[in-house]
Design a protein that fits this description.
mainly alpha; two-stranded antiparallel ribbon; 13 helices; flat
């Protein structure tokens, strides 16, 4: 549209120009998916990489957040629906991924058994479609399972209030002040920090996926020029001989982690506002928390 170029001479003009252009950019992306989703076209891959951590995407997400927030301020039932959907998604992902902990234990038992009893150098796992790797590969792969639990259960743990908290002020202030602290914290700490990690993590991921390497400072025209020489070059370097060689998956988990934190920060802001508006009676409303099944554990969780 060219509004940013026309109005971008001062911060206020730049801000409003980007907010207005966000509607156009969002509509254009939806109506022209082939320009960034048709990965048989190398230029489309470069557009996807560029816009994945771009100013344009930031303002599209910001406009969506503002629209949803305004609608929620007018219709509180809609905002509660957003809270339930986002927290439900976090719980569903976390409760599913948590089973990987069991897989870690079982795989470690198999590895130790094969090493100590049969002195095997390789291990084949799978049902129907099996894969065979060196024992050291399977042993190092356990790091991936651990990373999956950390990255994909982060918002679930937040909903369940399971993160370690250093509390110097929060417990001694009034109910309304707590909700204000929660709202300010989600908007000024959770969202900005997650956005910053996304900006670094996005290009960090693509640097191990393609050549020539991309940079956060590259313009779209420069990336389109680089697309002529683009080829896939997925990182498969292991830290030890015959060790786990799919470390690019950790970069994928980093992006998933940030996305989940962003969604949960929005849900936390909405919940904090609604609980502030509706009063103490709404505290924990619609909150789907796991019951430990043990009276002592439940008391400890409540005190925490």
């Amino acid at each position: 549209m060219g509004l940013v170029e026309a109005w971008g001479g001062n911060p206020i003009g730049w801000l409003f120009a980007n907010l207005i252009e966000a509607f156009y950019n969002f509509g254009y992306a939806l109506t022209h998916p082939g320009l960034w989703l048709d990965w048989s076209d190398k230029a489309a891959i470069m557009r996807f990489i560029y816009y994945g951590a771009s100013t344009e995407l930031f303002f599209v997400v910001l406009v969506i957040f503002l629209i949803v927030t305004v609608c929620g301020l007018v219709w509180n039932g809609f905002m509660w629906g957003c809270v339930r959907a986002l927290e439900g998604f976090a719980n569903a992902v976390g409760r599913t991924v948590a089973w990987i902990g069991l897989l870690m234990v079982l795989q470690q038992i198999v590895i130790i058994f094969m090493q100590r009893v049969f002195a095997a150098s390789q291990l084949t796992l799978g049902f129907g479609l099996s894969v065979t790797f060196d024992i050291s590969w399977w042993s190092e792969e356990l790091k991936l399972y651990n990373a999956m639990i950390v990255c994909l259960c982060v918002s679930y743990t937040f909903v369940q209030q399971g993160h370690v908290r250093v509390d110097l002020i929060y417990s001694n202030v009034s109910y309304s002040t707590k909700r204000i602290i929660d709202m300010v914290g989600s908007l000024l700490f959770m969202l900005p920090s997650a956005t910053l990690v996304w900006l670094y993590g996005w290009n960090f991921f693509w640097r191990v996926m393609i050549v020539p390497q991309v940079s956060a400072s590259d313009s779209l025209d420069r990336l389109l020029t680089k697309s002529r020489a683009l080829r896939w070059n997925i990182e498969t370097i292991a830290f030890s001989p015959n060790g786990f060689n799919a470390y690019f998956l950790f970069k994928v988990l980093l992006l998933c982690f940030v996305a989940l934190v962003m969604l949960q920060s929005v849900a936390f802001f909405f919940r904090s506002y609604l609980e502030f508006k509706e009063g103490p009676a709404s505290e924990g409303k619609y909150l789907d928390r796991d019951a430990p099944g043990d009276s002592t554990a439940e008391l400890a969780a409540e005190l925490h």
